[in-house]
Specification:
Elements: E1 6-12, E2 17-22, E3 25-30, E4 33-38, E5 43-47, H1 51-56, E6 66-67, E7 73-74, H2 79-84, H3 94-100, H4 103-115, H5 122-130, H6 140-151, H7 156-166, H8 168-172, H9 178-185, H10 193-200, H11 205-209, H12 214-223, H13 236-245, H14 248-262, H15 268-279, H16 289-294, H17 301-316, H18 323-336
Helix pairs in contact: 4-6, 4-7, 6-10, 7-9, 9-10, 9-14, 14-15
Length: about 350
């Protein structure tokens, strides 16, 4: 394999999977398998040489097709027909597929959003409704990963509506507010999946419930803050102050949430605000404790208080004064405080 320029990584040998890296591009290769035992979360598999047996364990008919090197299509469950009809359908009985792995209920909505038509498969929706409680068998991390993929995908408003009809949405997010997500989507911008999650469930505790990363939980907490207030009429000083309090990425995210809250219609003013936030150089307070010591302050709490006062003055000036200006202001203030 190495002589052919192929590097192989054993990424999932227990499930018969390796990753072949060819010209720096990874390709996942999995041998044919059949399920020996399933528990709603994981499957015990055995190897097989029967392509139809392998296809029978797939979730949807459109995922059960295979193509050989000569271009011959193997389609045992009419996946091509379903794909052309924009029909997302489980292989075999929908209820059985979900009982084997409850995550397939969530995957149905992701595939329906991308490949499905206006009328979803009735059997699938009925099976999902009947097996919502099976989601409790899954790890929160698997649920969160699939949910964020749905939130990043197309046709989101109708997809969330369908999830609500089946009861799965409230099972996963009891405090879900689809109207909030609808208002955000009406802004017609490229919002991140995390922003859409907050619009759908506007409580930063959702990050803890879904066991998101610390970075993601921090962003959700920032979305919930009332300050700095973001409005299109902000001047550059306001934007610089905001950039000190929150990162550029968080502020951009919050403009989408603010736009949805104040006015869901697309407005150039909000787009201009996002461009201005991105264009401003990140302000950095130029003083440190060493500057205070150079001016005669002794290390300790008093030094920290003076640096804090200098920073407040710097922010009040729109974060524009340089190091020399901040040093001059601090030096002028010290005698009056003796």
């Amino acid at each position: 394999m190495e002589k052919a320029g192929v590097k192989v990584a054993p990424t999932g040998l227990a499930h018969g999977t390796i990753t072949a890296v060819i010209d720096h591009h990874p390709y996942e290769v999995t041998t044919l398998r059949r399920d020996v035992e399933t528990d709603g979360r994981h499957a015990v598999v055995a190897w097989t040489d029967d392509w139809q047996e392998d296809a029978a364990r797939r979730d949807f008919t459109i995922n059960a097709m295979s193509l050989d090197r000569d271009g011959t299509l193997y389609d045992f469950f009419h996946g091509q027909e379903d794909l052309e009809a924009r029909r997302v359908r489980f292989v075999g009985q929908a209820a059985q597929r979900i009982e084997e792995d409850a995550l397939r209920a969530l995957r149905f909505f992701r595939f329906q959003a991308r490949y499905g038509g206006d009328v979803p498969d009735r059997e699938a929706c009925a099976a999902i409704t009947q097996h919502c409680q099976n989601m409790a068998q899954l790890s929160v991390e698997r649920i969160a990963s699939e949910l964020l993929k749905i939130l990043a995908g197309p046709n989101l408003e109708s997809t969330i509506g369908l999830m609500d009809q089946t009861g799965l949405l409230r099972t996963l997010l009891p405090q879900a507010e689809p109207s909030g997500l609808a208002a955000l989507l009406a802004c017609k911008g490229q919002q991140r999946a995390l922003v859409r999650l907050y619009a759908l469930s506007p409580d930063p505790a959702v990050g803890q419930a879904l066991k998101l990363s610390n970075v993601e939980k921090s962003a959700l907490n920032a979305y919930a803050k009332a300050h700095p207030v973001l409005r299109p009429e902000m001047d550059d000083d306001d934007i610089r102050r905001a950039r000190v309090l929150q990162s550029e990425a968080v502020l951009i995210d919050r403009t989408w949430l603010a736009q949805a809250h104040y006015d869901a219609s697309p407005e150039d003013s909000w787009g201009r605000l996002r461009a201005r936030i991105a264009a401003i150089v990140q302000p950095e307070f130029p003083l440190s404790g060493r500057d205070g010591i150079m001016l005669g302050l002794k290390p300790g709490p008093e030094l920290g208080q003076w640096i804090k006062k200098a920073r407040a003055w710097w922010m009040a000036q729109g974060c524009r004064p340089d190091r020399h200006a901040c040093q001059t202001w601090l030096m002028q203030q010290l005698p009056s405080q003796e």
